[in-house]
Amino acid sequence: AIILSQLTTPIASSMLKNLPSMQQGEVALELGKLRRLTSDTYVSVAKQLAAKAATIPVINNVQVQGTDLLLDIFDNIDETSESSIIEFIKVVNLDLYREITSQRVSFNAINQLDERMLRQIVKDISGEEIAIALKNASPEIAERFLSVLPSKSRIILEDRLASLKAVSPDDELKARRRITRMVRQYIKAGGVQTAALETGEQTEETQIQ
User: Count of CB atoms within 10 A of residue 29's CB?
Assistant: First the structure.
């Protein structure tokens, strides 16, 4: 967990994904609990990794926000692995489980977002990615996206959806995760009001401000 906390998200995601299934949950649990490392702990781990030794910070503590990194990792692994990890955390650490699920945004709840955030999403993501994300989505979610587009852009997206014959599960997941990751970033930045937004795969709701 300490090692993953110091790596880029793609590399951390790849490492976590390749661990044995039980160890995935254990490492994710420890990662989610990380907040601050003592310099002694950091040095001890770094010395076991010669490539990391040169980057030891000259400070007493290293700031780590484990839940943020864990959520970013979830955006880069498959749903089966994510579900397994979350269920493991739920069993052994209910507080961490609640913290994670309170921040995990479900694509199926996207239609609850307010208009300003949806407009920002369609502005910041390509039409192709939106079409891939919406191809197999419910009519309510698709219509919510379409409703915030100017008439010309709406026609273009509708045509793109109609001409898109099939979408692979991996491509769909990647596009949807990109959107939900953007939502989390917007919410974290503050200033956007939404309705109660279902998070994760659970039925828990949170009022996001």
Answer: 20
CA-wise closest residue to 173 among 118, 124, 136, 127: 136
Residue 63, φ and ψ in degrees, nearest 5: -70, 135
Q: What's the rounded Cα separation, in Å, for the pair 129 and 172?
A: 9
Residue with tokens 């507080």: 95
Query: CA–CA separation, 150 vs 170, rounded Å?
Result: 29
Q: For residue 38, what are its two tokens?
A: 């003592």
Q: What is the spatial distance between Cα 98 and Cα 104, in angstroms, rounded to a whole number?
A: 10
pLDDT string in tens for the chain (209-residue length) = 888 888 888 888 888 988 888 899 999 998 888 887 788 877 777 777 666 555 555 555 555 567 777 887 887 777 788 888 989 999 999 988 888 877 777 787 787 788 888 888 888 888 899 999 999 988 899 999 999 999 999 999 999 999 988 888 888 888 888 888 888 878 777 644 443 344 444 333 332 22
Alpha-carbon torsion, ordered 67, 103, 183, 26, to 10 deg: 40
Cα 18 from chain centre: 19
Does the pTM exceed 0.70?
no
What token pair was written down for 123?
């502005």
